[in-house]
């Protein structure tokens, strides 16, 4: 009897990339495939420390030493300098028959594709972001050629016209954060240009989205990638497929969760709470922290805020918070280090989400039917916030400002003044997301096709999705 397929899964070593790719690993194992999930040593340790989730017996972990760095900029440089030879050594050291395929993060494409080509292993790229964002990154070179980047900070509201299908949706301020780098030879900017180019050499593309949300852009991506699998929302797909022993919400978390906030939510009125989280990487100055806190308190709604120990920049952790603000926070708010976000968003007390617009957070909010206040900072977050507010109409965009009066107004708009209008589109898109993961839905069908193609090693010529009625 033939051995089952063996898939190597390689995420970029950050929380927002590890989580969806580990969810995919569990789905593939559930379908009978063997998976080796490749972490850095640092993330492997954090995953074991933070997650209580039992792992499928077909899932094993391998780690690459010496890549982790404590801040995101240094991490990019480390991946550029250290990753490829270490990954090659790991693949060679496995021995036995070569893996059936490699599923590599889209921003780990250079090393994965080159090692795959050397070893005769097909590579599928998984871009852990929206189709709109992936399409935008694929047009970085065209944006340069057409003179749309670089640009100065005084003209941020000029429309962008060089991205087919998204003409005049984006302003300069809505492009990925790397487009704000004035020097196009900057190594971080070039990292994304190079990784995006290498991604197009892959056999297929996986996207963490669903057909009805981004069908026009998925279709355009089909001109570059002959095979596309839109398989989001992944956490919902996992719950829909594994019903006898559902994975706990900390399954892909690199940070320990504080579940006490769920008890606090139980005591709040229905749809009254603003949930606040800026993800695992965004940092605030002390001034920004206080502006958000004043705005939330003045907004008049109870709030649950994830305040990581490193949320405020170290050099700004000096002055004490004004006593009257702390009293108001204790009366109305709940602060935790890290929250079980999927459960929080699904809780009946939560009515809005003040978010950094990371793609996992956006997808989780869409599924839960919770509208968003978007405050993007890095990477694809600017794209996501614009799509959420202007394309899908499921939130409001607070990009590039966070003064207390604006925060207060956005809270009141989302929770009161504009709520009825925003909730109509939010509820409809949430329904589409739920439908996509059910049997016969577009994401369910795309996952089945991905598994079938891995088992038969056939890639080429289709978008594995259909519309959900």
From TrEMBL:
EC number(s) reported in the record: 2.4.1.-
Root EC class: transferase
GO process terms (BP): flavonoid biosynthetic process
Alphabetized UniProt keyword annotations: Flavonoid biosynthesis, Glycosyltransferase, Transferase
InterPro entries: UDP_glucos_trans, UDP_glycos_trans_CS
Gene3D superfamilies (UniProt xref): Glycogen Phosphorylase B (3.40.50.2000)
A GO MF term: quercetin 3-O-glucosyltransferase activity
PROSITE patterns with a match to the protein in the record: UDPGT
Similarity comment: Belongs to the UDP-glycosyltransferase family.
Name of the featured protein: Glycosyltransferase
Provenance organism: Actinidia rufa
